[in-house]
Specification:
about 5% helix, 3-stranded antiparallel beta sheet, 9 strands, Jelly Rolls, mainly beta
Length: about 130
Amino acid sequence: MADFYKVSPASFFKEREEGSVIVTTPNNREKIKGDFDEVFEVMYNNNEIDTVIMCGIIPSGASSGTKLHKRDYSEFVYVAEGSVKVILEEKEHKLSSGDSAFIESNTPFRLAVDGDETLQGVFVYFGKR
């Protein structure tokens, strides 16, 4: 939705509370469900610095589409369990448990969950959009 409306993903979430420590638990995190039964939990959101950190659980076979796409913001992916392919124009990277990738804004790419396992990971979206 953020890509379509050309806005920060952070703009879809509640403003953060004031203070130097922000604690979230599975019981109080905002949950987002997607088209492929993926579920994201918002662990941290800060509109002032355009940063959203989410924990994601994405089923096997899910992807971010069939075509490469660009985003106006950068994305960081850390794989806790499972594996995912980061597909670029000329290259493909397979990330497994413990691996991470940084995708700079305006880089054509797509993600595809690889194998039979569900992907569990941390997704960080940041930068001016």
